[in-house]
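Q: Hi! First time doing this. I have a protein sequence and I read that you can turn it into a structure. Is that right? Here it is:
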Amino acid sequence: MTQQKKYLKLLSEKYPTMRSLSREIINLSAILNLPKGTEHFMSDIHGEYEAFCHILNNCAGVIREKADMLYGDTLTEGEIDEICTIIYYPREKLRQIRKERVISTERHKLIINRMIGLAKMLSSKYTRSKVRKAMPPDYAYIIDELLHAQKDEDDNQIRYHERIIDSIISIDADDFIDALAGLIKHLAVDHLHIVGDIFDRGKAADKILDLLMQHHSLDIQWGNHDMLWIGAAAGNEACIANVVRNSIKYDTLGILESGYGISLRELTVFAENTYREGSVMEKALRAISIIQFKTEGQTILRNPEYGMKDRLLLSQLDLSAGTLTSEGKTYPLNSADFPTLKPDSPYVLTQEERTVLNDLKAAFIGSSRLQQHIRFLLENGSMYLCYNDNLLYHGCIPLDDSGNFCGVPIFSGIYKGKALLDLSDKVVRHVYYSREKDPEELDFLWYLWCGKRSPLCGRNIKTFERYLTDDKEAWHEQSDPYYSFYETEKCCNMILREFDLYSESSHIVNGHTPVLASSGEQPIKANGRLLVIDGGFCKDYHRKTGIAGYTLIYNSHGLRIKAHQPFESIEKALTENVDIESTSQYIETQKHRIMVKDTDNGKRISEEIDDLYELLNLYRSSGVLLRKSTPDTPENVHF
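A: Yes, that's right. Below is the predicted 3D structure, encoded as structure tokens:
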């Protein structure tokens, strides 16, 4: 039996009658002609939990836009502010209102009816079945009834629905409002794309991952900081040292200690007993930095194909002269505190350093919450994604000086373009899930984090020079030629074709490099072919970028990008109904609405409809008539 016949046989078990088959064809055909769902794209969140949480809750300002459209002529601005804040933070805001005044039955009715109005508006582009599936199960029937109230001759339905709301208020209004707020947010954003770097300088990347794990529909393209944590969780020692060093440097130790239960006690005791200069945490930073440089040096020496011998800088220190030589130039060191460094074997860990690193390694591997988060990243993430004719990746596609794909030597082969990202994706999954780690594959996770030709990095990272010398000339980090060529439409078209994307409406969605909006830089590159959506969520970048992040929105009307201003706090949002200020810039507006049939899902549905028609024709040609009492696959249909 051919594969197609086997498939049709299985399909016939699901649709055993011509009536059931016809009904499904009609349903699917109708879905194809609905507007496509709204996609949101965000990148480089960098652990900024409160700002990210608020943008998830306000759907990048879309809920306020819809509220203004619906209620702008009937409610005051303050009333719209309040109903939006209730949708963003239902339980917290209701608790806040209750502290200030008693919430009457009439006020509860107003809140619920206004939210029902917004839910009706947002649900209009979806099938009733999809909306029902998005509803919290405990309230699905009630919400469905309220959403589809119809005014009749005697107002019977209106009175019926008023009684429903009265019952809700008398039992648990807050719980129902919370459920309704969740539905509104679900309908406002059909699918979420995170284009890399959940981790880094912010203090609550773990809480962000908890939020994402609750999201109804999302994908993630790994960033270099995400890969650093994946490598650390897999047991890569250089990645572990980098993670710990970054946590100390950016004062995000709460993620390690409280979030993941990883203690730094062994490190701090060792640092206090070994190093002379600075406070306890400054000594700890020095201790883990030297461990990092040693383990990175070992990695580079084991893998000469990385082409990173110029990063073997511990051997370029002249401790007696107090200097560092980098790229042929000599710079003064900012410290002489190197008690564990042996000039004749600079990359060998002391016994004490080895003990500290072993302790950290066991803690990373043994952290159940960290491992849960990393598995989530792997199950929902990838190096890149082609989605609805757009190409999403965090970093770059390495190019040579002529703007062609650059071959990167890995595992005795040379890979470039799509093949490089495909291999990287395969290796990451294999090494993480392998019980016995291949040392070469494990090293590769570190290379993806910071390698010169890594598609996640794309620059020559100068952590060593930035830490050990104050001369900023040594800090310059050369970027991959990609970041010059991606300004051109020719280059972007070449990349899109490499990933089999030929549509004139295809775009590259890129993160990783903050857009300097304050200096006039635009996120739209190459005549609209490439969109850089790193607007600087991280507070450290706000002064540099002039904004506090982007959200790219792709709905049935086209593409627009929203630039967000800094978010003050969730507390201020609750007490003063303060929202994030966002401004929209339209990239493409479609002459005709984009329908489900124009999407990847639409293509799958169309293929399914073709299969259903084939089965229907088979039923018809076989002259099958099923009795109502025997809903099984017809035996006289020959496959």
